[in-house]
């Protein structure tokens, strides 16, 4: 975690619906300095304290702190908690999730509590093994803020409810990838370039099982967009639907 560009984690929370899966997206507050007003996947920067929570995880990966950060951000922004009951390993019930949110969500969001402290207080382990790597993007040089961002996909238990925080996120919506892309094209929603491309890639799968299997079988190619001749260029090996796009289209100019 010592690289100059801060690590960040983004989670694509999925559920099955007839004809096409849905992904949970949140609308950022208009006053946010980074992607204000945009429809995004929940996520954010890795905090130093996230590394301290790695002993309270169920995975065995080199990127556990990044996964913990994603789980924390999802809980702060949406109220969904990817965690298991310590001891029997069962996934947290929606009732317990709600109780944890009432007791600790605001404190966690304010930085008054760490994920390690949350795990100890509620006898939980974070279900990092449920997060499947989906994409890896690095913000190009020259941007006001740069992040080294890992995207993950995961299934949300059908009985779990969510609620946006009303602070960073002013709205949340379960949405089909095809509908999100239609809304963006029609100007009804703002979806930034990396998010839009990942929505489109997700839309190749019609069920959650298909999306998880596709992610497990794919090779993650890092995307560091390059600007040349008024266009953003990304590597073809990253397997998106395009390899270049005009700056005007990418940034809604």
Would you mind describing this structure in some detail?
With 253 residues, this protein is of the alpha+beta class. The chain has one domain (7-250): Alpha-Beta Complex (Nucleoside Triphosphate Pyrophosphohydrolase). Helix content is 30%, strand content 23%. The chain has eight helices and twelve strands. The protein has helices at residues 48-52, 64-78, 94-109, 115-122, 177-185, 193-202, 208-217, 247-250; strands spanning 7-15, 22-28, 39-40, 43-45, 83-85, 124-126, 132-138, 148-155, 169-175, 226-228, 231-233, 244-246. A hairpin with a 2-residue loop joins β10 (226-228) and β11 (231-233). It is globular, with a radius of gyration of 18 Å.
Q: State the helix count.
A: 8
What oligomerization state is this entry in?
A: single chain
CATH homologous superfamily caption: Nucleoside Triphosphate Pyrophosphohydrolase
Query: Which range does the strand content fall in?
Result: 15-25%
Task: Determine and state the CATH class.
Answer: Alpha Beta
- Structural class based on helices, strands and sheet pairing: alpha+beta
Element-level helix/strand string? EEEEHHEHHEEEEHHHEEEH
Distance between the termini: 35 Å
Mean pLDDT: 91
Domain count: the total is 1
Radius of gyration: 18 Å
In total, the number of strands is 12
Largest sheet, if any?
7 strands, mixed
Uncertain runs are: 31-36
Residue share in helices? 25-40%
Task: Give the overall form.
Answer: globular
CATH topology: Nucleoside Triphosphate Pyrophosphohydrolase
Which CATH architecture would you pick?
A: Alpha-Beta Complex
């Amino acid at each position: 975690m010592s690289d100059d560009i801060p690590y960040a984690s983004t989670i694509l929370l999925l559920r099955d619906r007839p004809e096409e899966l849905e992904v949970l997206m949140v609308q950022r507050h208009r006053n946010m300095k980074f992607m204000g007003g945009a429809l995004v996947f929940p996520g954010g920067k890795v905090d130093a304290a996230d590394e301290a929570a790695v002993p309270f995880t169920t995975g065995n990966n080199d990127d556990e702190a990044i996964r913990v950060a994603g789980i924390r951000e999802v809980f702060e922004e949406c109220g969904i908690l990817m965690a298991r009951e310590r001891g029997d390993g069962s996934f947290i019930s929606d009732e317990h999730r709600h109780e944890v949110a009432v007791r600790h969500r605001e404190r966690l969001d304010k930085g008054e509590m760490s994920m390690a402290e949350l795990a100890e207080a509620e006898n939980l382990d974070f279900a990092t093994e449920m997060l499947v790597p989906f994409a890896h993007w690095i913000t190009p040089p020259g941007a006001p803020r740069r992040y080294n961002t890992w995207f993950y996909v995961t299934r949300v238990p059908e009985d779990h409810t969510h609620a946006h925080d009303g602070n960073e996120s002013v709205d949340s919506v379960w949405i089909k990838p095809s509908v999100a892309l239609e809304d963006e094209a029609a100007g009804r929603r703002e979806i930034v370039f990396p998010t839009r491309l990942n929505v489109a890639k997700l839309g190749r799968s019609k069920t959650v099982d298909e999306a998880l299997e596709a992610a497990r079988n794919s090779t993650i190619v890092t995307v560091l967009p390059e600007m040349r001749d008024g266009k953003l260029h990304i590597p073809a090996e990253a397997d998106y639907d395009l390899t270049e796009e005009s700056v005007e289209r990418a940034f809604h100019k």
